Amino acid sequence: MYRDAFFIDGGWAAPSGPDRFGVISPSSEDVVGEVPLATGGDIDRAVAAARAAFDDGPWPRMTPAERGEVLARAAKLLAERAGQIAAVTVDEIGCPVSNPASQTGLVGPVFDYYAGLAAAFPFERTVTAGPRAGLVTQEPVGVVGAIVPWNAPVTLAAWKTAPALAAGCAVVVKPPPEAPLSTFVLAEALRDADVPPGVVNVVPGGREVGEHLVTHPGTDKIAFTGSTAAGKRIMSLCGDQIKRVSLELGGKSACILLDDTDVAAVVPMVVGIGMNRSGQVCAAQTRILVHRSRYAEALEAAGVTAAAIPLGDPHDPATVIGPLVAERQRARVEGYIGDAARHGARVVTGGGRPIDPPKGWYVEPTILGDVHNAMRVAREEVFGPVLCVIPFDDADEAVRIANDSPYGLAGGVWSADPARALAVARRLRTGAVNINADFPPFPLVPFGGFKQSGIGRELGPEGLASFLEPRSIGLPASLADSLGASSATPATPGSSATPAAFGGGA
After folding, report:
1. pLDDT, tens digit, for every residue of 171-222?
2. How far apart are CA 223 and CA 236, in angstroms?
3. Which 3 state secondary structure label does DSSP give 458?
4. How far is CA 327 from the centre of its chain?
């Protein structure tokens, strides 16, 4: 929990400045760890190491299958260290020890998935059109700046690092100041898996250091997970340099319970999903939309369920709801609850701070009724254990309410008829939808959002493609034949055009 160096160029590098910052436990409010405070100079060293590793090192020049072998070793090492990662996050962000999978369930498996995909992905293909032919290659985008948030630091670092490495990129990871420690375990595992020096670097720091990484001329792409406000800033900075960027941002996801839903059985599951990690999840389904004929029943069930969720010390295996990550986050959540009550929402259960534990940044699991979709609490991301229950009259209205949001990250639909639920799910403008608790099989499929929930996708083949640049090379057809065409394209009008037709010379 105490570190005195950054991970740069394959080893531990002393910080360039003297300042350090403490990691505060959200449950005890005590300092439980410490790391150096990064400066722009530390980012410069990390980017230089990544630049050298990409421009002159062996990693981008290895075959995809060779890179896959390294990722497979990393997956095994990360699986072995899952307990260590989870233990650090209990103190770092207050994630309950009872739910370690929320911090490690998609770390090792993500590296394992991309290990296999690296060997199978079509990094090259040839096409022919009469006497002309072309080779299309997928090239690594270069040096990636990966900026991750505090709510799942190792998971979200893995979601960026694994596909970037499979593509042949080098990476500089900037963990958040609230949770800088667990990502060093990832760095150690990658080092022990024989990832070459400089290919992965970890330098935690604050907003100023993050901006320096984003605007650094040595980075070719920024991959960011965090708030929509921060994403807008990063996108504008990348725009100045026409720098590649992918953004996984906020959400205000809706869960629709159609009129044939078994409310008594389903509502406890929906509340449990929404309260996961104290609601500090970008894809949390915090708007529960219920058919008006079942509204009173659902509201009562939600209140009873939330009131019974065990809240307390995250080190206690019986705890389900831990603290919020910081005092400022608790104040933010309390502000949303108070604003909702002033505008007519009814606090069905919770709404305040628990008496026990006496210390820590806790907010009671809260259910709000009589909410309409124009309220701030229904439109903005609260990032706390607060669920809004909203009535609708028919499926069309449910879809309108669900889509009436600046966000579009996730969602859910429940019905006794899965086919009916699927028909509704197809109408939702959101990047991921579960039907009756059947979630998409991540990491095999992409994750990301519509609208202000982001740009680009992580996981799945799409996650690998986001770290690649396509390149087309013109070939004599005879050479294409010797390469072995993986696809043949019939001649089309203009297929024998000269380069001048595309604005080039003769």
Report:
1. 999 999 999 999 999 999 999 999 999 999 999 999 999 999 999 999 999 9
2. 14
3. strand
4. 23
How many CB atoms within 10 Å of residue 483? 13
Q: Which two tokens stand for residue 26?
A: 């959200």
Q: Which of 248, 364, 381, 458 is catalytic?
A: 248
Residue 261 in 3-state DSSP? coil
**Cα 62 from Cα 497, distance rounded (Å):** 35
Indicate whether 505 pLDDT > 80.
Answer: no
CB 133 within 8 A of CB 477: yes
CATH number assigned to the domain comprising residue 70: 3.40.605.10
Its pTM stands at 0.94
Residues 239 and 257 in one domain: no
**Bond preceding residue 418 cis, omega within 30 of 0:** no
Residue 231 contacts residue 238 (beta carbons within 8 Å) = no
DSSP-derived letter for residue 292 is: G
Are 291 and 211 members of one domain? Answer: no
CB contact at 8 A, 111 and 473: no
254 phi, psi to nearest 5 deg: -110, 145
Residue 421 maps to which CATH number? 3.40.309.10
Closest C-alpha to 255, from 449, 446, 433, 429: 433
489 has a pLDDT exceeding 50: no
Measuring CA to CA, how many Å separate 476 from each of 11, 78, 229, 375, 491? 47, 46, 50, 63, 15
Domain count, the chain: 2
C-alpha span between 125 and 484 (Å, rounded):
9
The backbone torsions φ and ψ at residue 240, rounded to the nearest 5 degrees and listed phi first, read -60, -30
User: Rounded to whole angstroms, how far apart are CA atoms 115 and 32?
Assistant: 35
For tokens 């059985």, the residue is 265
Among 122-136, 157-171, 182-196, whose mean pLDDT is lowest?
122-136
Beta 407-408 vs 450-451: how paired, if at all? antiparallel
Would you call 248 a catalytic residue per the annotation?
A: yes
The single-letter DSSP state of residue 97 is T
CA 376, 314, 93, 457 torsion: positive or negative? negative
User: CA 373, CA 345: separation in Å to the nearest integer?
Assistant: 11
The residue segments making up the domain with residue 109 are: 6-15+26-249+458-465
Could you say which DSSP state residue 284 is in?
Answer: -
Strands 143-147, 170-174: pairing is parallel
For residue 417, give the 3-state DSSP assignment. coil
Q: Which long-range contacts (CB under 8 A, 24 or more apart) does 458-464 make?
A: 458/159, 458/160, 458/163, 458/223, 458/246, 458/248, 459/110, 459/113, 459/159, 459/163, 461/117, 461/121, 463/114, 463/159, 463/163, 464/114, 464/117, 464/118, 464/121, 464/163, 464/166, 464/167
The answer to whether the CB of 38 falls within 8 A of the CB of 204 is yes
User: What is the SS3 assignment for 74?
Assistant: helix
Exposed / middle / buried, residue 356 (Cβ in 10 Å: 0-12, 13-18, 19+):
exposed
403 and 304 housed in the same domain = yes
Distance of CA 309 to the CA centre of its chain: 26
